[in-house]
Amino acid sequence: MRCSSESSRPVVLPSFRGVFRSPRRAGALVLLLVAGCSANEPASDEPSGRAPVPAETPAPSRTIHEPIDAATARALEPVLRSAALDVERFFGAPFPEPFEVVIHSDRAAFDASFPPEWGIEKTECWMVATGVADALQLLSPRVWKDEACEHDPDDARHLHDLVAHELVHVYHGQHNPSPDFSAVSGIDWFVEGLATHASGQLDSGELAPAREALETGRGPLELATAWSGKYRYGVCGSLVAFLERELGRERLVGMLGATSAAELFALIGMSEEELLERWRAWVLGEA
Ligand SMILES: [Zn+2]
User: Fold this and answer.
1) Cα(188) to centroid of ligand 1, in Å?
2) Judgement on whether residues 25 and 67 belong to the same structural domain of the protein
3) Which of 78, 91, 115, 170 lies deepest, with the highest CB count within 10 Å?
4) How far is ligand 1, taken at its centre, from the CA of residue 167, in Å?
5) Is the pLDDT score of 15 beyond 90?
6) Are 63 and 73 in contact, with CB atoms under 8 Å apart?
7) What is the pLDDT of residue 46?
8) Which residues 6+ apart lie within 8 Å of 205 measured at CB?
9) Distance from Cα 26 to the centre of ligand 1, integer Å
10) Which residue, among 132, 125, 122, 146, has the nearest Cα to 101 in the 3D structure?
């Protein structure tokens, strides 16, 4: 499948190494959405591939786009750079592998990037990006006003945090035995919560807050349902924020390789019931 309605020719973006070709690839799951930005960071040099932490330049990556999105790709470059550096700073280490950033020129092209095994033929209007180990797929912000909902392409913080959210998924996938998350089970709340927390979305003020969910009796009774409904980002993001508060950043990073709820809870050192109980008390200011 192709990512366009326009003819294409290779285009190389200087720093994020943009190349032009037909995308496809991807892996599985993890859709995304919401969040904010820091628009223009000064462009820096070509990624060097070195990797101290945090690296001055993010992991070598290349941006793939149609000619119609050339200007969009250039505008996104500093956002990608800034968001990638933020992700590396959060985890304390660079992306171990390169990845692609694919900008889709319209909704149909974005939908076509989803592998059949995901079972999603048509995406919802709020879905504008996905992230797995080897790629970030993005519906071009150029068409968000016409082909998306709940996303303002002119909101710099929103765009930055959204890109950072997906890059957390990319980073996570690069540290997980299942790079596209197709073989993980029972950890949706952690995957999405980590991306929401580490990207800064939780602090953006955009998300329906976990406290409101709990105060109105709509908090999750079990983690299996935490990643659902209006409060899914706020609830899951705050669950991971609570884990970091209790266990520290280092132990949180040590959970990137977990593929099951059992494996995750062994690392957390609490039962699901204890985690939920303590999290509720923290959110409600009782702890
Ligand atoms: Zn996500």
Assistant:
1) 9
2) yes
3) 170
4) 9
5) no
6) yes
7) 35
8) none
9) 14
10) 132
Token digits for 122? 């048509």
Domain-located, residue 177: no
Burial environment of residue 17 by CB neighbours within 10 A (0 to 12, 13 to 18, 19 or more):
middle
Residue with tokens 């998924």, as numbered in its chain: 169
What confidence tens digit (pLDDT) does each residue in 47-93 have?
333 344 444 455 668 999 999 999 999 999 999 999 999 999 999 99
Residue 182 inside a domain? The answer is: no
Q: What is the pLDDT of residues 182-209, one digit of tens each?
A: 899 999 999 999 999 999 998 887 778 8
Query: From ligand 1's centre to the CA of 154, what distance in Å?
Result: 21
Contact 31, 51 (CB under 8 A): no
Count the domains in the chain. 2
Residues 246 and 130 in one domain: no
183 located within any domain: no
User: How close is the Cα of 166 to the center of ligand 1, in Å?
Assistant: 6
Residue 165 C-alpha to ligand 1 middle, in angstroms? 6
Residue 7 alpha carbon to ligand 1 centre in Å: 31
Q: How far apart are CA 22 and CA 73, in angstroms?
A: 15
From the CA of 64, how far away is ligand 1's center (Å)?
21
pLDDT mean across residues, the chain: 82
Q: CA dist 245 to 105, 126, 141, 192, Å?
A: 40, 31, 34, 17
Domain range for 265: 188-283
Q: Are residues 158 and 218 in the same domain?
A: no
